[in-house]
């Protein structure tokens, strides 16, 4: 697959240290790399380190006049990041390859596609949550993101007890499910 013209421009910008090109490449690719690292025994700090190393590899390549990218930038960064992370895990004895090469297990393009699908679904869920309204939006975030207990939620949201808070959370989840599946999963999310 040949890269699009704007990707060639991004590579030229990267080679010339253009902050806009660097920022665009970062914005469009970091979340995918972060998901890769976190889902494979890493932290967000690890993801930042690995992404930075991958960006340096891409930068060094982009500076070479002989370099021609034969895939998308995201595929290149993902592949480099994946190799760097596997190497780091091996050095830390947190991963021992079953065969000669992890590349034989799952092709990078297929794995990247799975990550992108998950990211798209997370974005759709985020949009659905933003359409949920209060107090449901805050309640769902308090329980699932801030990991508050039902007792804490009952106290913070003014419910008489944890059971009432739990019932409200259930109603909110049903409403969220309805919004997500009817509105976003059917491709109407851009309204």
Write a structural description.
This protein folds into 2 domains: 5-104, Rna Polymerase Sigma Factor, Chain: A, CATH 1.10.1740; 131-184. It is built from 8 helices and no strands. The protein has helices spanning 5-15, 19-38, 44-63, 73-91, 108-130, 136-145, 150-157, 162-184. Helix 1 (5-15) crosses helix 2 and helix 2 crosses helix 3. The protein starts with a helix and ends in a 7-residue tail after the last helix.
Which SSEs are present, and which pair or pack?
Blueprint: H1 5-15, H2 19-38, H3 44-63, H4 73-91, H5 108-130, H6 136-145, H7 150-157, H8 162-184
Helix pairs in contact: 1-2, 1-3, 2-3, 2-4, 2-5, 3-4, 5-8, 6-8, 7-8
Question: Which tags fit this structure?
Answer:
191 residues; mainly alpha; Rna Polymerase Sigma Factor, Chain: A; 2 domains; 8 helices; 70% helix
Please count the beta strands (DSSP E, at least 2 residues each). 0
Which fold name fills CATH's third level, the topology of the largest domain? Answer: Rna Polymerase Sigma Factor, Chain: A
Largest sheet: none
Rg for CA atoms: 21 Å
Helix content: over 70%
Please tell me the CATH architecture of the largest domain by its name: Orthogonal Bundle
**Secondary-structure content class:** mainly alpha
């Amino acid at each position: 697959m040949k890269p699009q013209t704007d990707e060639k421009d991004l590579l030229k910008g990267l080679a010339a240290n253009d902050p806009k090109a660097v920022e665009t490449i970062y914005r469009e690719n970091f979340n995918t790399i972060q998901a890769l690292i976190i889902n494979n025994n890493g932290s967000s700090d690890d993801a930042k380190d690995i992404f930075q190393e991958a960006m340096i590899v891409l930068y060094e390549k982009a500076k070479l006049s002989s370099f021609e990218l034969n895939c998308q930038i995201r595929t290149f960064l993902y592949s480099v990041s994946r190799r760097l992370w596997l190497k780091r895990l091996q050095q830390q004895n947190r991963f021992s390859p079953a065969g000669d090469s992890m590349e034989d297990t799952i092709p990078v393009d297929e794995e990247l596609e799975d990550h992108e699908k998950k990211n798209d679904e997370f974005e759709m869920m985020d949009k659905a949550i933003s359409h949920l309204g209060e107090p449901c939006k805050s309640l769902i975030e308090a329980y699932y993101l801030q990991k508050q207990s039902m007792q804490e939620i009952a106290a913070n949201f003014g419910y008489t007890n944890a059971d009432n808070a739990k019932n409200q959370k259930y109603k909110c989840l049903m409403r969220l499910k309805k919004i997500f599946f009817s509105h976003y999963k059917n491709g109407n999310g851009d309204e």
